[in-house]
Amino acid sequence: MVSRLINSPCDSEQTFGVSGVDHPLSVRDQFNLKDAAVSYIQSRLNVSGDAVDLRKVFTNDVTQHAFVRQQINGVPVANAVANVAFNKANKVVSFGSSFVTPSKVPSTTPSISVDEAIAKAERALSGQFNEHPPTVEFVVKKDGSLALTHVVQIQNAKTGAWFEAFVDAHSGELIQVTDFVAKASYRVLPITKETVPEGLEVLTDPQNTAASPFGWHSDGTTSTTTTEGNNAIAFKGSETNTTTESSDGLNFIFAQDPGQDPTTQENIDAARTNAFYVVNTMHDISYLYGFTEAGFNFQQNNFDKGGEGNDRVTISVQDSDGTDNADFTTPPDGQSGQMRMFLWDLTSPERDGALENDIVVHENTHGISNRMTGGGTGRCLQTNEAAGMGEGWSDAMAEWTEQKNATIVDYVIGKYVANNPAGIRSHPYSTDVALELTLAAIGEVWANILHNVYAALVGAHGFSDTAHTDPTTSGGNTVFMHLFMDAFTLQPCNPTFPNARDAWIQADANRYGGENYCRLWTAFASRGLGIYAVNHKNNFDTPAGC
């Protein structure tokens, strides 16, 4: 197994509250997002326009975003990036940068061929080049120097590994590796339920046409009667092995029998149907909260609404290459996200992860967090801290989908597959201040913090029963999901805990005028992420006035 190998230059981040700050082109009558972003970054970092490679822009209902890379001698620097956001008044509200000032720049003419680099990467990563077009990019090394690299993608179909390899174009050394893998009517487990014992139901036309205008079985040109559509395809073994409707009219009614082996045909069909339903439901929910075509989502057809298409989620149900787990691979916008769901052998008969909604939602959320952080590259949750927080965001999303009212109870994930009421985490997520998470994984700590943020927002604003389909409601669960999604686009590449916290505070300033400023700070501080928290040292202080 290859460890994540990521060199991340020191990031700087700043947020500017409700009012924001001016940029050098503020005096112009007409606002141009691209021009304003480049001008601000030039001024802020004291670099020339040639050094700023504008990569992606997108706009949501409250902010406008630009994502750039540093460029030196016409070559982009893979891990020297910046992001800037503007509010509705065209003021800068957040800025993050990892631009560098290298002491020496190597020749931009490679000494070794891309074929040699591919061979090196294939040997080192035990995989094969996947034919995605290679690029030439600089990489900032740990000592601050630059390396010119061939950038190639390497996959291993057997293990599910999918890497982006940066091979020094002069020495042939493997410098850096991006690991893309994060570890009509349907009889399914409704999204608000967690496990099979709660009961499958028949849901009719659960799609949201605001997010999926042609439903879940058509891309606007081609329609299917299988678990295949514009947003996702669910299969076993190969993409040709999908589930076909049980009767005319897109009816997918399969009776899952927990007393039988999960590999019986009826159980396979139930699993594929449920996974297809959950991933499509999450596509539609996340779309309403900002994960759109322009926001780097997963769709075959983007309907000329921005972003890159041809990248629906592929869902391998009962994947044969693992047990007792699941994973999601997030390559850049324009390449399909890959979900692998495994069987769990802790019981007899075995249990199917595709039939535990919290696990499917957890994996799908890796795609959301990896795409929305950093502007669709899939490269910006690679440090240990950022990747760990990715696990926390995924657990928090799973919890959010299952909330049914304003009552805040402890949350446990993975109870069904583990056959254990304690689930698969070391602790439940709780508002109990006596619960100590000092030895918990990074993701558990972050998910527990977000559990407390959720409790604070629902406690203040109540609960909306329609938050899954209506993002305009005022319930605390709706507010939480807006801030959850907005913050991804505001935080810098490879964020730390304080970076992510600040992005939530700024997201509230952008969308709600800072209405929840003290509420958020109090929740974060209650779990050690107060205003003076730094370098993984707890602080419980809130800003003056809170």
From TrEMBL:
This is Extracellular metalloproteinase. It comes from Ganoderma boninense. GO terms for molecular function: metalloendopeptidase activity; zinc ion binding. It holds the Pfam family Peptidase_M36. GO terms for biological process: proteolysis. It is an enzyme of class 3 (hydrolase). SUPFAM superfamilies: Metalloproteases ('zincins'), catalytic domain. Residues 207-228 are annotated as: Disordered.
